[in-house]
Each structure stands twice: as C-alpha cells, then as structure tokens.
Amino acid sequence: MSDMKREMAFGDRGGGTGRAGGGGARGGAREERGGGGDLERGGGRGFGRRKVCRYCADKNLKVDYKNAADLKYFITERGKIVPRRISGNCARHQRQVATAIKRGRQVALLPFTVMQHQ
Amino acid sequence: MQQMETQGTGGAPQHAKGTMLREYETIFLVRPDLAEDLVDKIVERMRGIVHRDGGKVIKVENWGRKKTAYEVKRNFRAIFVRFLYLGGTGAVAEFERNLRMTDDVMKYQSVKIADEVDASTRAVEADVKLPGDPEMPERAGREPEGFGAADFGGRRDELADETELPPEAE
What we know:
By secondary structure, chain A is mostly helical. In chain A, 50% of the residues lie in helices and 0% in strands.
C-alpha cells in the first residue's frame, strides 16, 4: 500500500514535467490523458513532427544487441522498452529492437529494471 | 558433412571445400577479479573445444572489465568475452556445457548468426582485446547509471510511470 502511494507520487511528478515539456508533440492522439491540453489544441491528431524510424532512415545501421549505447535510446529510465508510438520505429525494426533489448538484458549490457533511489 | 581430421585440441581443423556450418556467437561473463592470464586460459580452452568438435573459431573479442547493468553473482562488473565461431550440431551444447563447468564464468548467452556458412572460405579474424571501462573508486561502481538518457520530447518520465498516473488535477 505504502509502496503504491510512493509510485503514485512519483508518477504525478513525472507526468507534470512530461506535459510541460513535450506535451505538444503528440498530445492530441492520447485521449486518455484528457485534461486541459486537448482543449487548447482542439483535440485533433496528426499534427506535430512525424517521427521516422532510425533504422529505416539509415540503412547502414543494424539492430545489434551488443550495441548497448544505441539501444539505451529505446528504453525508459526504468529500463522498460519504449513503445513504437513514442520511439517512432517501424514495426519491423521495433520487433528487432525489442529482441535486441531482451538479449542485451540477458548478458547484463542492459538493465531489466532500474531502482528509483530517492 | 564429414570434416577432415582434427589434430589435437590446439590446432584448427582443416575444412574440406563446401563444408557448411552454422555461425554462432557466444558472450560469456567472467568474474571481474580473475587475473588476465587465467581469462586467456579459459579462452584457449574454449577455442580448443570448438576445434575438437570440428568447428572453427572466427574471432575472439575480450571486451575487458566492464560495468554490468545489474548485479551478477554479487559483482557489478564482469570481464566480457565474445566468441564468434562456426560449428555443427551440438557445438553450442558442448560449448555451453563447458562454460557451465567453469566456475569463473558467471553468465553466458549464445546466438545464431547465420545458417549455412562455408567453413573453408570464411576467413578467421584477428582477436581483439579492449580495455573495458575505466576503474572507478569503490563507491562509484555500486549503481549502474546513465540508462534512459535519450530524450523523447520530455515524455519519458510520463511513460515510465504511465500505469501509476493519477488523473490530472487542475
């Protein structure tokens, strides 16, 4: 229970900064976020910068589980895999990235989870 | 396909033309406190095992003492070794069996790189030895840091705790 509370508190803080920082990028597409943001932007979707798949943009770039530095880009601070709608990966490369992250975790190049120390 | 004879454990076997083998890569983590010559000893033994099974070691990379992303057998660092080799059926099983028997090997993972590689034409590459991460004071090595530094327009924190988010109170 107390653990849950702590999580909520952290989430609140995280959410706040997120909204202030990059809320405008794709805010409209996320109805569940609700709140004032959508009103201000008319609730439309499809505006903002379209993200392109890094691996499609650069044909020479290969998804490699040994390249932890590149894969870090696709995991959150907690070590979770970043979803496609955020990272902008195409389906194929997202699959490859997900597999690579899981392999990287197995050999301790990437974390399964990262403790939040407060 | 039958391989030509293998001479002992040390030398690499000669492969007949058109011998198709699979290419594998195995990464294993060695205890960080192990002396360098002992690591080399493990490497040479594993090389001998691949050759004994009629395989071919393409490349051995020693990444040196690196920080691990999480605690492995009470250590926050490990010596990473990457083996790139060709082998037939059972090569990986034999390789991994020997890693399991070696107490100083903490962790390993094998991945298939390619099917159907011609063993006689696949060139052997030079071994690589990397220095690893710089040594830090005792305290600094405790906590893996620097993960998730990428910027997704400030939504990163939000994402990490998406499920725990309370409704926005304005």
